[in-house]
């Protein structure tokens, strides 16, 4: 995948972390800069690590599924994007966080928001030769930026944008799935 596609993918993947970060800012309006960095680094680390894990798994089975790889990548990204869109429209999904400073909560949030990155890494291995290390760094960096921004917005603005960002992230993942499918069908 080219740099533009990886950057757009990073933006889409970071939207879950962005929405979670807004919630962290809402839950603790007096959150310190050090705590914000702690949360953002954890979110970024897992968002960058799990695509690599997914890529390694996908690389091992590539020869077995190469003739249908674009359909698999499309299905996984479409499922994930659709799930994000559905969750963003779910009015009853308003779970609060008890303690945004605890490592248990931070790790849980980090892993939960990065499951989609694992699937994307698997899809990336099926759709594109090469490695994902540069992509993982970009994904982690974009996630860190949007996590810090989300915490700041949560502190200052409120809950107004959280669900909309998750919706946008789902739309971006769907668009990337369609792009992968169309590239393979028409190349």
TrEMBL record:
<keyword id="KW-0406">Ion transport</keyword>
<dbReference type="GO" id="GO:0005886">
    <property type="term" value="C:plasma membrane"/>
</dbReference>
<dbReference type="Pfam" id="PF02659">
    <property type="entry name" value="Mntp"/>
</dbReference>
<keyword id="KW-0813">Transport</keyword>
<comment type="function">
    <text>Probably functions as a manganese efflux pump.</text>
</comment>
<feature type="transmembrane region" description="Helical">
    <location>
        <begin position="165"/>
        <end position="182"/>
    </location>
</feature>
<keyword id="KW-0472">Membrane</keyword>
<dbReference type="InterPro" id="IPR022929">
    <property type="entry name" value="Put_MntP"/>
</dbReference>
<protein>
    <recommendedName>
        <fullName>Putative manganese efflux pump MntP</fullName>
    </recommendedName>
</protein>
<keyword id="KW-1003">Cell membrane</keyword>
<feature type="transmembrane region" description="Helical">
    <location>
        <begin position="70"/>
        <end position="86"/>
    </location>
</feature>
<keyword id="KW-0812">Transmembrane</keyword>
<dbReference type="GO" id="GO:0005384">
    <property type="term" value="F:manganese ion transmembrane transporter activity"/>
</dbReference>
<feature type="transmembrane region" description="Helical">
    <location>
        <begin position="39"/>
        <end position="58"/>
    </location>
</feature>
<keyword id="KW-1133">Transmembrane helix</keyword>
<feature type="transmembrane region" description="Helical">
    <location>
        <begin position="6"/>
        <end position="27"/>
    </location>
</feature>
<keyword id="KW-0464">Manganese</keyword>
<comment type="similarity">
    <text>Belongs to the MntP (TC 9.B.29) family.</text>
</comment>
<feature type="transmembrane region" description="Helical">
    <location>
        <begin position="106"/>
        <end position="126"/>
    </location>
</feature>
<dbReference type="InterPro" id="IPR003810">
    <property type="entry name" value="Mntp/YtaF"/>
</dbReference>
<feature type="transmembrane region" description="Helical">
    <location>
        <begin position="132"/>
        <end position="153"/>
    </location>
</feature>
């Amino acid at each position: 995948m080219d740099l533009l596609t990886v950057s757009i993918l990073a933006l889409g993947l970071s939207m879950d972390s962005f929405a979670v970060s807004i919630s962290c800012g809402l839950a603790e309006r007096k959150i310190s800069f050090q705590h914000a960095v702690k949360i953002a680094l954890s979110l970024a680390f897992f968002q960058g690590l799990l695509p690599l894990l997914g890529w390694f798994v996908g690389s091992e089975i590539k020869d077995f599924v190469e003739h249908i790889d674009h359909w698999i990548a499309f299905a996984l990204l479409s499922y994930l994007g659709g799930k994000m869109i559905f969750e963003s429209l779910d009015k009853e999904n308003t779970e609060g966080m008890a303690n945004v400073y605890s490592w248990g909560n931070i790790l849980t949030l980090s892993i939960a928001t990065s499951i989609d990155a694992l699937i994307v890494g698997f899809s990336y291995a099926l759709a594109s030769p090469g490695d994902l290390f540069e992509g993982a760094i970009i994904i982690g960096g974009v996630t860190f930026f949007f996590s810090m921004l989300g915490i700041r917005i949560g502190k200052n603005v409120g809950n107004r944008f959280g669900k909309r960002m998750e919706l946008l992230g789902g739309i971006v993942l769907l668009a990337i799935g369609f792009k992968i499918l169309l590239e393979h069908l028409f190349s």
